[in-house]
Amino acid sequence: YPMPPNATLIKAMYNSRHRNEVELEWQVDGVEQNGGWTGFHLEHRWVSERPNKRGKSNDSHVRMEERIGTQDWYRTVIQDPDIRSHTVRGLTPTVTYQFRIIPINHRTIGHPSLAKTP
What we know:
- By secondary structure, the chain is mainly β.
- Helices cover 10% and strands 42% of the residues.
- The termini are far apart.
- Residues 27-118 form the Fibronectin type-III domain.
- This is Fibronectin type-III domain-containing protein.
């Protein structure tokens, strides 16, 4: 299958004060209609956690950075090529996340968009 076009994440925004849901919107670059993709992989990972109000020791900060450096992307498969928005629910309010979108064409995976943080 041909390589799908690139996609750009244009919006990543918390949709409530609770910070446990993020609304995402994206666009497919240079294409007006469905042409060469069958869906999307929407991925997210956490990049940092707000410290407790009591403070943290330097040792726990180092361990947290090690966990952040090896953090995997969690994937949601969107099988409708016409979808351009999605809400990610069940997030931890004290964590900062990154999101990216990847177009797919059957088994051919496109290039991931630049990661965006809400």
